[in-house]
Amino acid sequence: MNVSPTAKYFRTGSWILLSLLAVIVGLYPSLYFVLGEKFGLLRSKPPALLTNTLWRIGFYAHILPGGLALLIGWLQFNRRLRERRVQFHRQLGKVYVIAVLISSLAGFCIGFTATAGPVAQAGFICLAIVWFTTTLLAYTTIIKGNTAQHEKLMIYSYAACLAAVTLRLWLPLLVYELHQFVIAYRVVAWLCWVPNIFVAWLIARRPSAA
């Protein structure tokens, strides 16, 4: 099927933008070490939670491997890289899977203390389950040699991973429109990943998914 030059430019531009956002947000966790804990979403956390050792372990076990997964995940969709450097693709994939499994498990645990109450907590907990499940299934399918299913599941996995990007795009807009951080955060807990999964479904159902 021939693709028009306009469609090619749009696809290339979208890919570059996604990659840049993934790298920027993937490096975002490092700012917590530079600017301290009065930064980002930690500003909305109560002091009792910030001094809880288990919660702090869970928080950093979520954001650091999660940032790594975001940084390297987009490279796995480069067909030329996959075909020319197969071993590199496999090793990078293993790093991605390990990072996601750690980050999603930690995200599940700290999701129960998410700001804005049960609605937001349910959103982030469901995201953690989806991210963990799709990634684990993507790994088990490639072990079984099912490349086509593996590629589709990885699309879903990275769509869930990109929730870290879409959250940071949606949240300022929602706060501006709704004038209430708590309400905006309840909405973004679902909005940051449900549309991503829908887009992943649209991509994965195409004959050539990745």
UniProtKB/TrEMBL annotation:
Keywords: Membrane, Transmembrane, Transmembrane helix. InterPro entries: DUF2306_membrane (IPR018750). The keyword Transmembrane applies. Pfam families: DUF2306. The keyword Membrane applies. The chain crosses the membrane at residues 12-34, 54-75, 95-116, 122-141, 153-171, 183-204. This is DUF2306 domain-containing protein. It comes from Chitinophaga oryzae.
